[in-house]
Amino acid sequence: MWKWLHPYANPEKSYHFTGKLLPWFNYLALIFLTVGLTWALLFAPPDYQQGESFRIFYLHVPASILSMGIYLGMAIAALSSLVWQLKLADASAAALAPVGAVFTAIALFTGAAWGKPMWGTWWVWDARITSELILLFLYLGVIALHNAFEDKNLAGKAAGILALVGAINLPIIHYSVEWWNTLHQGATVSKFGKPAMAAEMYWPFLICFFGFSFLVAAIASVRFRTEILARNSVRPWVKALVLAKEDK
Amino acid sequence: MNPRRKKRLTIVSSILLGLAVVAGLVLYALSQNIDLFYTPKEILQGKEDTELRPVIGQRLRIGGLVVPGSVKRNEDSLKVSFKLADMRMPMVFNEDDPMVTVHYDGILPDLFREGQGIVANGILTSESIIDASEVLAKHDENYMPPELADAMKEGSADKAMHGKSAYNKG
């Protein structure tokens, strides 16, 4: 069933494949973000209660969703690296961790900047915000473990275990606003069901969300390719690649 | 799948399952301590399953809706007092609902208004009075343009009237 995937377990094939995808990710991210952010920040209507401050939604919500989505991707990569010992899965987990950490930090920062004018406080220790902060610490732990060992295999194993254990936090973040009383409001957009916002506000959000997703894909691809090169630096194909670049 | 991979998969998934169960039990045991605030009903009648009520003098947070018509401002200072009732949908207030009075001396958040969700942090000074040192606004997850909000308000005007009369009649 998974036979078609087997060629991509080869680092050289994966390196060239992501190289072909990368420009697509770049252009799609550029187009979607330009259109989405212009629409969201200049043309979408203000909120009836929050006025213009509501617009930080278009940065905060995509960043929050992606901070969890990237973690899920990293945890799946860690699982396949631990069980099937795929070196590339390990490389992709290492590539994803810092991207996810940055998006978590963006989600926390924009949340604080939004909370100050609307709620009246930068920070409150409610279940949603605290669990998102724990997500940031999990990312930092995974990054630290990846760099704590000289031996990349050992580092990947240690970081992978932490990434997998931390995945338990994902449903907690998602359901925190339903399980407990929180200051943070419930989910506006979910995969199922109608979004709790007007259509002319929802469309720019969707475009922004896809834009940020392609941006993540682009950054992750660049990091993934450098990880592959760093881990295979003694292989002949990498040397050939470097020599070809120097000739140019 | 070869036996070694199968074994690793079993080990990894059983560890994860075990940890998930542990996390679930811990959160279940802590469930009421993770709540950010008490609701007015919980302050007056106790938590749903433990019936534990906060004691007088305790510092706590309360969350509820500002009861329309209950906001009293002091004309010479920032002192304000208002009643909070449980959050619910639709917003209909009855006089015999559990309500807690909040006294506050300070600047209220911009979103503060009648019918708005509020989380106040303060000291319970008597059974149903809280001296707040901080008042935060809690908004819901619904966003809409002002025109749509106006249209909805007009469309449900008789519903709102009904709610108000229910409150006045008690």
Description:
The complex is a heterodimer of chains A (248) and B (170). With 248 residues, chain A is an all-alpha fold. Chain A has a domain at 54-200. Chain A contains eight helices and no strands. Chain A has helices spanning 11-43, 57-83, 87-118, 127-148, 152-166, 169-179, 199-231, 236-247. Chain A is globular and about 60 Å long. The mean pLDDT of chain A is 92. Chain B is of the alpha+beta class and 170 residues long. Chain B has two domains: 1-34; 40-169, Beta Barrel (OB fold (Dihydrolipoamide Acetyltransferase, E2P)). In chain B, 36% of the residues lie in helices and 26% in strands. A five-stranded mixed barrel of chain B has the order 1-3-4-6-5. In chain B, a hairpin with a 5-residue loop joins strand 2 (72-73) and strand 3 (79-85). The longest helix of chain B has 32 residues, at 3-34. Chains A and B meet through helix 2 of A and helix 1, strand 6 and helix 3 of B.
Task: Sum this structure up briefly.
The complex is a heterodimer of chains A (248) and B (170). Chain A is an all-alpha fold. Chain A contains eight helices and no strands.
